[in-house]
Amino acid sequence: MAEHSKNHTALVTGGSRGIGAAIARTFAAKGMDVIIHYNRSHEEAERTARQCEELGARAVTVTADLRSKQQIVQMKQHLESLGMLPDVLVNNAGIAHYGMLIDVTEEEWDDVMNVNLKGVFLMTQAFMPEMVSKRYGRIINVSSIWGLTGASCEVLYSTAKGGLNAFTKALAKELAPSGVTVNAVAPGAVDTSMLQHLETDDLEALKEEIPAGRLASPEEIAALVYFLSLPESGYITGQIISPNGGWLT
């Protein structure tokens, strides 16, 4: 399998921990420059950056509230000054919400939609013009299996991820003539802090529902993201790929 040019750069939102950090480390191990975005997790982002540097990559951290267009513009200006605009944009940052729809407040609705959906729109709009100009780029959105099937007590989160899947499909058609691909990875259950709310018995019951009999590791999700970022994956676009251990087929 071909690898990226040594001067290719990837920007990973929500890259301080979990799936995002695994994606950043995977890119770094392949020799790419890595931009690790965070909102509040400064120490964790710096730790991930050090791990990437130990793998031989150039790594920088940047901060922005993805609900704010102004902060995203400022982040882009900073990256321009470093000569590090991304060839690969991984929209990974997101927040979950658990609870009955009847109890969802308007503020909770706005917050989940703004981070999971509006943030992707703002980031993509900010960074895709250079990809279009170069006639090369990869935009990879980290979605969820719940965006495909829906989940009881996760109506808000499922709606946001379903919207992200539609965004992916539509934008892929818009950018395909420019050599820019847009895909989404929609993982099933992954061994990250997002599942910390589950009791041990509930976690074991979840694993029993999955034909593979286990949770995914963040590194397994990162491997798929890396594959979609490759130059040779240029004919794959508009796809929602769900690594879920056979949970959804």
TrEMBL record:
Q: Which PROSITE patterns match?
A: ADH_SHORT
Residue stretches spanning the membrane? none
Q: Does the keyword Repeat apply?
A: no
**Domain of life, source organism:** Bacteria
Q: Which UniProt keywords apply?
A: Oxidoreductase
What Gene3D superfamilies does the entry give? NAD(P)-binding Rossmann-like Domain
The record's Gene Ontology biological-process terms are:
monocarboxylic acid metabolic process
**Keyword Transferase: yes or no?**
no
The cross-references to InterPro entries, in alphabetical order and at most eight, read: KR_dom (IPR057326), NAD(P)-bd_dom_sf (IPR036291), Sc_DH/Rdtase_CS (IPR020904), SDR (IPR050259), SDR_fam (IPR002347)
Question: What range(s) does the Ketoreductase domain occupy?
Answer: 8-188
* GO molecular function (one): oxidoreductase activity
Write down the NCBIfam families for this protein, in alphabetical order.
EF_P_mod_YmfI, PRK07231.1, PRK12826.1-2
Give the protein family.
Belongs to the short-chain dehydrogenases/reductases (SDR) family.
- PANTHER family membership: 3-OXOACYL-(ACYL-CARRIER-PROTEIN) REDUCTASE, 3-OXOACYL-[ACYL-CARRIER-PROTEIN] REDUCTASE FABG
Name listed for the protein in its UniProt record: 3-oxoacyl-ACP reductase
Q: Which organism is it from?
A: Insulibacter thermoxylanivorax
Q: Which gene encodes it?
A: fabG_2
